[in-house]
Structure formats: C-alpha cells, structure tokens
Amino acid sequence: MAFYVAAMIAILILPVLLVLAASFQGGLEASFGSRRWTLEAYRAIPPAYWDALWFTVRIAFCSTVLALLIAVLAAWGLVRGRLRERRLVSHLVVLPDAVPSITLGVALLGLFIPLGLSNSFTGTLLALTALSLSMGLRFAEALIGNVPEEMEQAAVTMGAGRFTAFVTVLLPVLAPGLTIAALFLFVHNLVAFELLLFISGPNATPISVRLFTDIVDRGVLPQAIAMSAILVYIAIAFYTLVVVTVGVRYVAGSALTRKG
User: Is residue 54 domain-shared with residue 19, that is, in the same domain?
Assistant: First the structure.
C-alpha cells in the first residue's frame, strides 16, 4: 500500500518538479544533478507575457466569483426548494463538461462574433463563467445538502426572512467549503486553454493562449518554461493561502468541521 501511494504521488508530482527544474536550467532537458541553475529564463520573460498573466489572473478571479455567486444561489433554490426538476437541471448544467471544449469554443465563437464579445474581457469572462458553473453547482449542492435545514428554520422562526437566514446562518457555515471550491475554480480558470483559444485575440489574450502561440511559432523557449513555472507558483500560493486561512481539515474534507 505504501508503494502504491508513493508511486501515485511520484506520477503526480514529478512532471511539476521537472517543469520547475527546467525553468532554472533554460531547457526541457532538465535534471536534478550538477547542471547550473540560474534565473536567466525568468529575467528574459517579455512584457507581453506579464500582461497576459495579469489579464489571466483578473479574468480567473472575476469568473470564479461570478460563477460561485450564481451556483450557490441556484443550488440553494434547488436543494431547499425541493424542485421536482432538480435532477434535470443538475444534468443540464453538467453538459458543458460532457461536450469537448473545442466544440464549445466554436459554438461560443459563433455566438460572440455577432454580439461583439469575441476578443474582449467581457466575452472571456462570460465564457469562463459558463465553463465554471458546472463545477461550482456540484460543489454548492453537495455543501448545502450536508447542512441541516433546521439551522435556517430556527432563524426563520425567530423572525428572520429566508434570505436573511441564508446570508447570516447558511453562508458562514458554507464559507470554508466555498473557499475550497473557489480554489479549484480559480486554478481551473487560470489554465483554461481550448475554449479561450477560439474567442481570444490581441485585446484579450490569456497566458495559456499566449504560450501556445509562441511555442508554435518559435519553439519552446526558456522564457516560456519560466512563465509556465510561475503558473505553478501561483497555484501553490493560492493553495497555501487557503490551507493557512481555513485549516488543513477543511481542505481534506468536510465543510462542517470546525477549525481546531
């Protein structure tokens, strides 16, 4: 069992470690041996990469917040409302995950061009939000379903409205779990590629698309590897922030576990 766990961790971690090592060695032939490690690749990152990264971080953050706002309210209505159509709605929302991202990208391109939303911040925001709703709704439904409804009913019997009970009673209980959901959604949106390849342009270029086009045109340059490593650093930083803020036990499991 220990060998199985070690092998699984190695399969997951080794590619990431190789990218990080390659970023300090200036090429894909990275090793953990005696090769010289430098910061030259990081210094060579062009301003266009930093602009694309800042655009990606902003769009990933905004789409994560928007998707969770919609998903939490929708899940609250589906779970607490006991709608007969809940199962149908849940299945419909999962459809974007079942459809290949390339197909979804072509469909959105055909929709966005007449509306003037292609190659724009708004269009990219809407695309990533739509892509995130499925995961966000699944998180929110599971979290709300595990919270006893009696907690909200107690607030209602004491004079609070349904929405007031939702904001003051349910949301604080869901907060740790929603933080974990936000982490997954943010990282997912940070590295989204196929969908954005079709609707991005000079005015709205995510870093994944920028790296892809440069690698196709010029090959795998050291600065591209360094920027890929920076994306890994950002993901690790957000994960660490969540762990420090809400506690390891929340990351590992329950939204109802109290931090000790």
Answer: no
pLDDT over threshold 90, residue 76: no
118 and 76 within one domain: yes
Q: Are 141 and 94 in contact (CB under 8 A)?
A: no
Q: Within a domain: residue 96?
A: yes
Count of alpha carbons within 13 angstroms of residue 227, beta-carbon side: 28
* Cα separation values, 121 from 82, 200, 216, Å: 37, 9, 24
Tokens at residue 21, please? 């090592």
How far apart are the C-alpha atoms of 214 and 220, rounded to whole Å? 8
Range of the domain at 13: 1-38
Does any domain span residue 60?
A: yes
Structure tokens at 119: 């190659």
Give the per-residue pLDDT at 249.
59
41-64 pLDDT, tens digit each? 898 899 999 999 999 999 999 999
Q: Is residue 117 domain-shared with residue 23, that is, in the same domain?
A: no
- Looking at the 3D structure of the chain, how many domains does it have? 2
35 vs 110 pLDDT, higher one:
110
Vertex 219 angle, CA 214 and 220, to 5°: 90
SS3 category, 41 = helix
Is residue 25 domain-shared with residue 69, that is, in the same domain? no
Q: Which of 21-30, 49-58, 71-80, 135-144 has the lowest mean pLDDT?
A: 21-30
Residue 260 forms part of a structural domain: no
pLDDT at 50: 93
Residue 224 exposure: Cα atoms within 13 Å on the Cβ side: 16
- Tell me, yes or no, whether 177 lies in a domain: yes
DSSP line for 178-193: HHHHHHHHHHHHHT--
